[in-house]
Amino acid sequence: MPAGRCDQGACTSPHSRSSPTSEESEMHGMQIIGAETSACGKQTFTAHNPVTGEPLPTCFHEATQAEIHQAALLADEAFDPFRAKAPNGIAAFLFAIADQLQELEQVLIERAHIETGLTVQRLTEEVLRAIHQARLYAQVVREGSWQMPRIDIGLPEAAPQGRPDLRTTLFPLGPVAVFGASSFPISMSVAGTDTISALAAACPVIVKAHPLHPGTSEILGTAISEAARQTAMPSGVFSLIHSTQPEVVRHLVQHPIIRAVAFTGTYQGGRALMEAASNREDPIPVFAEMGSLNPVFVLPEILQERAPKIAEGFVQSITRACGQLCTRPGIMVAFGGKGFDQLIEVVTEHALKAPSQVMLSESIFEACREGTDRIARTPGVLSLTPLTTGNPAEEPPARHRCLTNTCSLFQANAKTFLAQAHLQEDVFGPVAILIRCDTEEELLALARNLSGQLAATVFGTHSDLREFPGVVRELKKRVGRLVYNGFPTDITLGHAIHHGGPYPAAMFPHFSSIGTTAIYRFVRPLCLQDCPEEQLPQELQDSNPRGLWRIVDGSLSRQPLL
Amino acid sequence: MPAGRCDQGACTSPHSRSSPTSEESEMHGMQIIGAETSACGKQTFTAHNPVTGEPLPTCFHEATQAEIHQAALLADEAFDPFRAKAPNGIAAFLFAIADQLQELEQVLIERAHIETGLTVQRLTEEVLRAIHQARLYAQVVREGSWQMPRIDIGLPEAAPQGRPDLRTTLFPLGPVAVFGASSFPISMSVAGTDTISALAAACPVIVKAHPLHPGTSEILGTAISEAARQTAMPSGVFSLIHSTQPEVVRHLVQHPIIRAVAFTGTYQGGRALMEAASNREDPIPVFAEMGSLNPVFVLPEILQERAPKIAEGFVQSITRACGQLCTRPGIMVAFGGKGFDQLIEVVTEHALKAPSQVMLSESIFEACREGTDRIARTPGVLSLTPLTTGNPAEEPPARHRCLTNTCSLFQANAKTFLAQAHLQEDVFGPVAILIRCDTEEELLALARNLSGQLAATVFGTHSDLREFPGVVRELKKRVGRLVYNGFPTDITLGHAIHHGGPYPAAMFPHFSSIGTTAIYRFVRPLCLQDCPEEQLPQELQDSNPRGLWRIVDGSLSRQPLL
Closest Cα to residue A472, out of A456, A491, A451, A454? Predict the structure, then answer.
């Protein structure tokens, strides 16, 4: 990758580029603008190891407006030739990305581990997931049925003036800006679902790297660039920029070339992007996934039967990755009584045993501590776990103990919860409230009180579900995914998963940000009326050369037209 | 339909309810709130006959906040029982709406004619279209494949911890607010695509009647209410309110019960709704179709071959319904030369012969006249038709001559057009500019300069299309529908039509506001994870009792699961 002309950034970090470590020798800290690197910005920043609190090697240059503009121009230039590569060229590109990720697995895990404090096991799963995802999308693109072309065959002889021939395919929106998640540095970041599904849709992508893992981002970005080079993609098909500045975010979102934004993160972050996008002369969609409370409802019979197992699973679910998952359950609701008491008891027992874990960053830790304190200070709320901010027994380096966190659990009754709006705000971290209901009305009131959720869980036996149909009915109206007798934290990649939900879980309830349907965010229908056969794209041609399933006069068919 | 308790409105129009005409005897001028009528508002308004300028019988009561709230509460109450009727109950409801429309055909046409000035022939087509549309949707709902359920079969034995069973169906958003178009008083108004597709999706609907055709709206609203009664739908499934006040629009859009808005109208109207919707605590989508320029590009060879025929078709297209169609072409572009001169000549000839027609209202006429004058005053723009505001030969009633309009045509070269942004604004009426290009670069610059369009047309022979691929390529990036060798004004109902496009033609490029795909605006995916078979909705059950096409592990199948 040739370097750009303006590598003049002056890094002020103690780990300057003159004393390289083993990781740093692989890192350049520059923007990846198409096939070139660029470092025009004078400002730099470093990542920090959340375990030691120390700055990490490599200074990352803040992107300049000119660099963003250059990335946007290249993306615009790349759009037509990139579209022309579909579907086989794009599939090859995605397969090559997967191969690159596989090759870089160890480097990626090492760097992500020191940037995020996430465990090697978790990061290994993430790499495998990212590789699997790129291959899955490659297959979907190559096979082609995802487009589900629609054809209403023309009837030139129909009275009174003939019926036109209408053929509708899906057309890419154009260049997409991607903002990755801090908590999934590999599988929902630079080479995550947003980027891969946008590329699969033939949209060039500009990623703004998350400043908490710029090194991981660089490795991932280099992998995509290298895959683009190997498969002869137009260079502007992918760029990666670094920044810690809100103006840069706004500048990218408001660049006229950008046609859509994809984001995974906080409610505040999503809203800021949405405002930037709607203040454009031509507003563009922001596909933001903004997390939620993901409530767990436990019905009476199953509570009696399985309270200890549910309690154990709940603590496992909320402490996964130190609670830094958008599908972590933030509340568990059950009827008061013996079962509830047992639930409290076993949950508390497991929570007290939960090992402390390092959070992604000081600001995330601080937000978690503030949120936890706010809950603890609420009248009527009982703390089930000691209000410490770390587990002294594990003795992390003294100056950095503050970033470690154990599980914080609270108990409240339904009335208290419903009366305090702030208890319904998602606290990002291993924090949850157990809520006691005394009547079915309270249970339903809790369900009805929920805003849009990515997921919810209902635990119930067959007879529970028959006896309390209202809970499921009310949850369905408010969630993107309803889990029966399990926890929502695992999300399987595939064709039937939906990860999204009514606002504020996501900006648009129609679209998923995980799974193969995530591609539909980046395409729009394009209808060709009375288009001559020789001008039709393959998927709409009479002969159906790819043998695709199509909706012909309203019915599915993979036959050629007669 | 029983009357509400507060019929206290005092009509101040000369046509008070004490002197009924034949039409008035059928009209009550009240809100239709579920199964009841209501007239709590003291303010009233009347419609006007655009031909005579006179107020029409029946005073319409302005809806109060309390009435809107009542309609919203009923819609919310109706949501669950209405969903439970799907699919056969909803299909029966839609069929009953079609039957009601058929029964009321003559009354509808009569009232719409005096409220809008549109011809009886045009209104007859609209009624037939509305009837056809309701039946088409009934069939789609009954057949069920539109839902395209997705199933990833669970693998409890898969390593390391089993794969969950994921089944995703489409779930209605909830109550929808509909704002109809002034220019399609029947087929895109109270019982138009927005209402019918929302009802088909099992969303209760509250329509705000267009104040230019409140009587037509009342007849249509009564038809839907009667169909709801006949098919035992919950009463809140449909309400119709009247208002001329922007606050009332805002109040409806911002009511917490409303989950989506559908609108057909002007850019300004769409933007106002979008602002109201995004200023909610929980923003909701506004599916606004806001019209566009719908440019026509004529390539050289076909221009030589068919200039007179294209010219004639163009004038027919822009004068249909006095140019009051959202797909009316506002510009036609061709290379200068003999063909272009002939195009100008024949277009002018037909334009001068075009009969004057009455516009929908004084404000629409005024906006058209102002837009026309603005074009005429632009340096470099040549008027091809006399700048009159009516055709004296036809002698409409003197005091109302101002509402009649003939065709206004202009000529400009590409440089002039590109330099004057206001020429690219859509003037709603029989107005168009013919643009002369001198180079292919100019032709492409015109295409690239376009904002999002509902439709565009390219006229070209096979060799034209091969020789000028850039025009089609650039248009595809900017339009929802591309018409080859025809005009965009006719829109066929069906499964493959797409009516929408990139902003500002529509708010979201992903959705259509005409055709059977319009239903997808009002549903969102809902994923059920590990749901017990007996709790699954029919479309997701193993046995596939309705024999639907489903996407099972990524492949289409209508077989039961093994």
Answer: A456
Residues A285 and A315 in one domain: no
Return d(Cα B136, Cα A392) in angstroms, integer.
68
- Domain-embedded: residue A224: yes
Is residue A153 situated within a structural domain?
no
Measure the N-to-C terminal CA separation of chain B; round to a whole number of Å. Answer: 51
Percent of chain A's residues with pLDDT above 90: 86
Instruction: Evaluate if residue A16 carries a pLDDT over 50.
Output: no
Using CA atoms, how far apart are residues A319 and A408, in angstroms rounded to an integer? 10
Put simply, whether A486 touches B (Cβ < 8 Å) is yes
Looking at A461, A484, A507, the residue that finishes a domain is A484
Once rounded to an integer, what is the mean pLDDT over residues A288-299? 96
**Do residues A392 and A480 both lie within one domain?**
yes
The CA dihedral of B77, B81, B84, B87, to the nearest 10 degrees, is -90
Q: Which domain holds residue A178?
A: 29-144+163-289
Nearest to B504 among A282, A525, A534 (CB): A282
Number of domains into which chain B is organized: 2
Q: What is the DSSP letter of A381?
A: -
Tens-digit pLDDT profile for residues B119-167:
999 999 999 999 999 999 999 999 999 999 999 999 988 877 789 999 9
Domain for residue A209, yes or no?
A: yes
Say if residue A350 is in the same domain as residue A275: no
CA distance A396 to A283: 48
Report chain A's C-alpha Rg in angstroms. Answer: 25
Is B514 within the bounds of a domain? Answer: no
**Same domain flag for A468 and A334:** yes
pLDDT higher than 70, residue A396: no
Of B190 and B391, the structure prediction assigns the larger pLDDT to B190
d(CA B37, CA B35): 7
B358 CB-near residues (< 8 Å, 6+ apart): B50, B51, B117, B322, B396, B403, B404, B405
> What are the phi and psi torsion angles at B40 (to 5°)?
-80, -25
> Within an 8 Å CB–CB cutoff, is residue A551 touching chain B?
yes
Does B164 sit within 8 Å of A526, measured CB to CB? no
A516/B contact by beta carbon, under 8 A: yes
Active-site annotation holds for A326: yes
A476 in contact with chain B, both atoms CB, cutoff 8 A: yes
CA A116/CA A134 separation, integer angstroms? 23
Residues B348 and B231 in one domain: no
A contact residues 92-131, partner B, Cβ 8 Å cutoff: none
Answer yes or no: do A276 and A301 share one domain: no
In DSSP terms, which residues pair with B334 in a beta bridge?
B298, B436
| Domain edge (last residue) among B444, B464, B484 | B484
Let me know: does B547 contact B555? Beta carbons within 8 Å: no
| B385 and B240 part of one domain | no
Q: Which of A477, A486, A529 sits opposite B481 (nearest CB)?
A: A529
**What CATH number did the domain enclosing B174 receive?**
3.40.605.10
Question: Is A225:A1 a contact under the CB 8 Å cutoff?
Answer: yes
Query: Residue B199 in contact with residue B172, Cβ under 8 Å?
Result: no
B363: domain CATH number? 3.40.309.10
Mean pLDDT for A14-39 is 70
Q: Closest Cα to residue A502, out of B285, B34, B227, B54?
A: B285
- Contact residues for A135 (Cβ-Cβ < 8 A; gap 6+): A94, A95, A98
Q: Say whether both A311 and A255 belong to one domain.
A: no
Restricting to B residues 194-253, those with a Cβ less than 8 Å away from any Cβ of A are none
For A77-95, what is each residue's pLDDT tens digit? Answer: 999 999 999 999 999 999 9
Strands B36-38 and B31-33: antiparallel
Helix (H) or strand (E) holding A367: helix A362-377
Q: Residue type at B444?
A: L
Over its C-alpha atoms, chain B yields an Rg (Å, rounded) of 25
